[in-house]
User: Fold this.
Amino acid sequence: MRRGAFIWAVTIILVLPGIPVVAASRLQAAAERVYAKIPNLEHNALPGQPDNTLVRRLINYHATLRGRPEYSRLDWKLTLADYLGYNLPIDPTTYPDNGPGQPVLAQDRAAIDALSRPQRNRLIEVLIWSLEQR
Assistant:
């Protein structure tokens, strides 16, 4: 009995740290697919962090902070409504990589606001497609 519990504990300790890495690499791959399909979409990459883009933060906000399903068109519309200020307020203190001296949230909101309705619909379509890819 004790040996079984020990094996489970060791397994959990070894496996759990790898989960965020897998999730982060999946998130990055999805963001890259979005930019491949929509090359003129604003990147808003952070200085010194070229992989930290608008799409990566958008997916992170949608799935992690709001806990919304990745494959629901309606939920993606709600997320974009958050960015446009029509739905839930976005807390700047919890927004991914937003901080003093880096007004990331304001820049990301401006980039989403600059998109037309058909462009936002295309973004949602491509986001869902990119997250379905393995």
